[in-house]
Amino acid sequence: MQIELGMEPPSRVDRIGAGRALVVIRRPGDELIGCAGAILSHLDREDPVSVLAVTEGALGIPGASPLGYGVPRSWGLSSGEALYSESLISRFVDRIQEFGADLVYVCSPSEPDLADRHLSLAVTEGVRRAERPCRLAYFELEAELRPNRLLDVAPFSGSVESARRAHAADAELARRLDLARARDAYRGQMVRGASVEAFRLLEAEDLCGPRPGGPAAALLPILSDPELPEQPVSAPLISVIVRTTGRPELADALNSIALQTYPNLEVVAVQASAGEPLALPDRIGSAPLRLVRADGPLHRSQAANLGLAEARGTYLAFLDDDDWWLPVHLSLLARSLVGASERAAYSGVRCVRAKGDGWELSHVFNDPFDEDRLLVDNFVPIHAVLFHRALFEEGCRFDETLDVYEDWDFWVQVCRLTPMRHEPNLTAYYRLPRG
């Protein structure tokens, strides 16, 4: 199979879109960095504009914004409350519906700041779920975005700079605005001296199709842009092991890895089928991908053991090629293991079956950990778990004489060495065959 990562060249435009514009920012002042010209172009055409600042903080000057859109709305959330979650997504859905947004602006999901990525992905999912179809435009903060729209902001350059100068007393914002000016000057040289803002515009149909991973396919080219710089991370490496025969569903699994909010991943794709190597990209989102294979076909247990042997991460997880995760899955489990006595953790899994253009829920795995029960009941799906590689080093292996329930046997081995920590959040999907 081949996963396409192509991006169309940007169009020069004098507006990103018409209608009611909702601008979502994490902290006050972000709109001055990424989309001030777009806001002014909406106001120039008398489009209603609402700016929502999600986290705590105040503007450098009180009262209405110097851009002229009025007083920004603030939710005043703490940094923990602003992480990707069902409750945050629901609030965005409500705000989109309440305001009647035709176009939503938010920072790019490729931003280096993890909190910005959480915000971007939560807003994206909110747009996807909203009953009101609307377009989504990503803007730049610190990461240079490969855009498909370049907005001509020359008519508003003076007003943008005046608004930026009004925040000069905020030292951190002033520093970030200086970086934005440098980026604007560089991009101006690339487009023959024009004054432009860069956006990645997604249409409603790009986000709202019947994809299992939500908007993943639309975002994969952004998140896997080979020109994006690698960001230094201090979080332990997680290796995601994907056993595959190259089925079409593999794209959904890889897309869900691309959307993970955890900042330090690698993907080990184990080709279980014989024949030519699968044509896979070198990177999925920010995660490098390595394809490993044997001389011939591999049984399920053999493929799992090869993946374990090739993985380099401190923590390991399996995701088979017909399943997928929500963006918060790995970060949730990794956080739960910090300082914990357990060396493995699992979350809840929805088992779904394709029905028409959507998915029908069959049942849910989300029960508390019970070591005795695990001996008689396989209640922990393989892709629900994140575990420390030390368990592999201490001898846990997949039994290569088993063609089914090999994961059940593996978890029984794991639980002889450590209990599992249960996180009662539904963050994974198990795809059942059509009935």
The share of residues in extended strands comes to: 15-25%
Query: How many beta strands in the DSSP annotation?
Result: 18
Largest sheet data: 10 strands, mixed
Query: What's the tally of helices?
Result: 14
Which structural category do the helix and sheet elements fall into?
alpha/beta
Low-confidence stretches: 1-6, 210-215
Quote the distance from N terminus to C terminus.
26 Å
Query: What value does the average pLDDT take?
Result: 87
Q: What is the radius of gyration computed over CA atoms, rounded to a whole number of angstroms?
A: 23 Å
The percent range for helix content is: 25-40%
Instruction: Sum up the overall morphology in one term.
Output: elongated
The oligomeric state of the chains shown is: single chain
Question: Top keywords for this entry?
Answer:
alpha/beta, ten-stranded mixed beta sheet, eight-stranded mixed beta sheet, 14 helices, elongated
Question: Would you write up a description of this structure?
Answer:
It is a single chain. The chain is elongated. The strands form 2 sheets. Strands 9, 10, 11, 12, 13, 14, 15, 16, 17 and 18 form a 10-stranded mixed beta sheet that branches. Strands 1-7-8-6-5-2-3-4 form an 8-stranded mixed beta sheet, sandwiched between helices. A hairpin with a 2-residue loop joins strand 11 (283-284) and strand 12 (287-293). It has helices at 30-34, 36-44, 86-99, 114-129, 157-165, 171-190, 204-207, 216-223, 250-258, 300-310, 329-337, 371-374, 390-393, 406-415, and strands at residues 11-13, 21-25, 49-55, 73-77, 103-107, 135-139, 149-152, 196-202, 238-244, 265-271, 283-284, 287-293, 315-318, 324-325, 344-355, 358-365, 385-388, 420-432. It is built from 14 helices and 18 strands. The protein is α/β, with parallel strands linked by helices. Helix 3 packs across helix 4.
